Amino acid sequence: MELHIVIEGRKDLTGQLYRQLSDAIRSGRLAAGQQLPPTRLLAERLGLSRKTVAEAYGRLTLDKLVVGRVGAGSFVQAPAAPRAQRVERSGLASADIVRKWDSMATPLRHPLPEGRSRYEFIGGCATPGHFPMDEWRRCLLYALRQDPALRGRYGEAEGLPVLREAIARHIAFARGVVCTPASLVVTNGAQQALDLLGRVLLEPGCVVAVEDPGYPAARGLFASQGAQVVGVPVDGEGMLVDRIPDTARLIYVTPAHQFPLGMPMSVARRRALLARARDIGAIIIEDDYDSEFRYEGRPTDSLQCMDSEGIVVFVGTFSKVMLPELRLGYMVLPEPLVNATLTVKHLTDWHTNTMNQHALAKFIGDGYLQKHIRRCHDIYATRRERLQTLFAALLAPWFEVVPSEAGFHLAALCRKEVDIELLLRLARRTDVGLYSLANFYADQPPQQGLFLGYGAIDTLDIEPALTRVRDILVEMG
Q: How does strand 449-453 pair with strand 435-436?
């Protein structure tokens, strides 16, 4: 710990030291839990007597700013800092831009741990307890031993060759994606892939067609880049292709598992989408975010493998199948987009964390990824079946589950009028975290219903959680 103390003169040395340490703690420069230097060491550094330092520590202890632990030392016990009040500054040239970002909705931002419920149906969140930490730790240790000659240097913008080769093999087997390592770029999650594509393909005023309901973070990202984002309605077969504007330059879809409703895009609709994009000269972004987990029917190949015109960008992520905090994703690009995308990637963040790239390449190559997918598939299949059974029994008077073949979330539409916002508030009071489908609609009138992620809730917790929801609905009448 670096502690910068300036003693002025020889008067009231204990008071000077006390006030400076107190200010450092109250201002947050010394964080709660941080260890203070031993009295002898600090006295030597400042040219003070040990008694002076000990007296200052004693006064801080009386103020409950420091706590002493026998055999361990003295530690900061900072009071909770009051929330800083927002200061409005007039005349700031960028004030309108700042207000634009302030007003932007982020409905998928996950709550902090203290804001989560015991029974949590949040989407896009896997159960960390099922992740093979021992295997991942071995892969990280392996990564530490790689490329010692390149240690301390920047990596390639496109990602490590060994990881791009591993990903190319994996998605060719799992999703039928046609690619080579040269067309694959490693990114910081799928969200960065979308950001890079928007920077390469869009200018202010360009039209982007997205599903409605759809992924709010994609809509918000393209809008922040100055695009005119147009919501295209969906039906049981996916996006209504004939509603895509003629001026669309970019089309964003989730064909394997429509987000958030869950149904797959039919083969006929996929062909129609490819034809429509070809006719208007648009690029399609195929976001394949969680289709590794499939429970019914034959696996469908990716939209990208049906593309003979070079107009589909396949975007994938390891956040859903592994852990979100790894921030590892990728995209498979048509050849004409590769160099431009690498230029933008280089300018925005140089490259993705190479240590995790080495570890992930080892994780895939040693078969740990497929083993983990199979394990999670069985767990999620059980949770999915439990949810469907209980909705068909306990909650049948109010909700109907939308058929879904993949992923680890379900949508449930209201059979009759339900005050969803009231239901969410009352459920939160009983420690059940529910989420509304209305958050995913933009231009279309929202359907009443619930978005139910089952990656973060244990199987045995599903029934008590939904029983509480049933009881609330009965009380609501």
A: antiparallel
The neighbour count for residue 328, using CB atoms within 10 Å, is: 26
Q: How confident is the model at residue 2 (pLDDT cuts 50, 70, 90)?
A: low
Distance CA 306, CA 274 (A): 8
- When computed from its CA atoms, the radius of gyration of the chain, rounded to whole angstroms, is 27
* Statement: 113-128+371-476 belongs to CATH 3.90.1150.10: yes
* C-alpha span between 121 and 453 (Å, rounded): 5
The conformation of residue 188, written as its DSSP 8-state character, comes to: S
pLDDT of 84 over the 60 cut = no
Residue 140 pLDDT > 60: yes
What pTM was estimated for this model as a whole?
0.81
pLDDT tier at 286, thresholds 50, 70, 90: very high
The three-class DSSP label of residue 12 is coil
Instruction: Give the pairing type, strands 228-235 and 207-212.
Output: parallel
Angle 426-427-428 (CA atoms, 0-180°, nearest 5)?
Answer: 90
**Contact present, 439 and 124 (Cβ < 8 Å):** no
Instruction: Tell me what pLDDT residue 471 has.
Output: 96
What span, in angstroms and rounded, lies between the C-alpha atoms of 142 and 365? Answer: 12
Q: Determine the average pLDDT of the residues in 7-27.
A: 82
Residue 336, both tokens: 């004409």
Q: Give the separation between CA 414 and CA 292, rounded to whole angstroms.
A: 28
Q: What is the pLDDT of residue 81?
A: 55
Of 459, 476, 474, 426, the C-alpha closest to 117 is 426
pLDDT at 19 over 90: no
Q: What residue spans in the chain does CATH classification 3.90.1150.10 cover?
A: 113-128+371-476
Give the tens place of pLDDT for each residue, 313-348.
999 999 888 988 889 999 999 999 999 999 999 999
Q: Where in the chain is the domain with CATH 1.10.10.10?
A: 13-76
Crossing angle (nearest 10°) for helices 368-393 and 133-144: 150
Note the pLDDT of residue 41. Answer: 87
Asked if the 131-366 domain carries CATH number 3.40.50.300, the reply is no
Amino acid 4: pLDDT: 60
Domain with CATH 3.40.640.10 in the chain: 131-366
Look at the chain and count its residues.
Answer: 477
CA 133 to chain centre: 20
Positive/negative CA dihedral, 362, 368, 370, 372: negative
CA 412/CA 403 separation, integer angstroms: 9
Q: How far is CA 265 from CA 189, 234, 261, 360, 384, in A?
A: 24, 10, 11, 30, 20
- What is the H or E stretch that residue 396 is in? none
The residue-averaged pLDDT of 340-369 equals 96
Residue 83 has pLDDT above 70, yes or no: no
Q: What is the CATH number of domain 13-76?
A: 1.10.10.10
